[in-house]
Sequence to fold (201 residues):
Amino acid sequence: MAIIRAAYKKSGFKVKLIYMPWSRAEIWVKSGKFDILPDTWLSEKRKAYLLYSNPYATNRIKFIKKKGDKFKFHGLNSLEGKKIGTIRGYQYDNEFMNSNLFVREETSSFIQNIRKLIHRRLDLVIADEIVAKVYITKKYPSLLNYIDFTEKALAEKKLYVTCGKKNKNSKTIIESFNNGLKFIKENGTYGKIMGKYQILH
Fold:
């Protein structure tokens, strides 16, 4: 989110972040009630009603485990028998969603999944590495003492800012982000932000 704030600051925009279930946020951005949906993955379905920015990061989709768990992800077969926390409304890898090797347990929020993991009600949580690290660091930093990320990723996805096409200012909103993103990459702000959260770019 720090990248998005910095990019929009160049155009004089202030970003107010509101946390809610992903499915509801997507509906409200689609309708124009909210202006932007950060951390969106590209899909042909969404392109029909969302206007996409240039990609601002490449995210790794990883599994989060309880600290001390020796589990190592090395393909879907390594997940056999596991109970894995997912988030309602998120778009996951098709192979992961169609596999019968493990159980996917759906909730409405990421932090709910993390709490279930810590209390051993889940074996793993699947998450966007960047989104998860930034969110936990800013909102619940103490939880970092209880979790680890797998070294290997399930997949890599580019992240975008999107705006509902029904929003009359959609083109301006996305163009402002693109211009700001270019600016903060050139002046070094982008690299400093990514380094703060120990994220490769």
In short: The chain has two domains: 2-57+157-196, 60-155. Helices lie at 2-9, 22-31, 44-47, 94-98, 110-118, 129-139, 170-186, 189-196. The chain has a mean pLDDT of 91. Residues 25 and 37 are 7 Å apart (CA to CA).
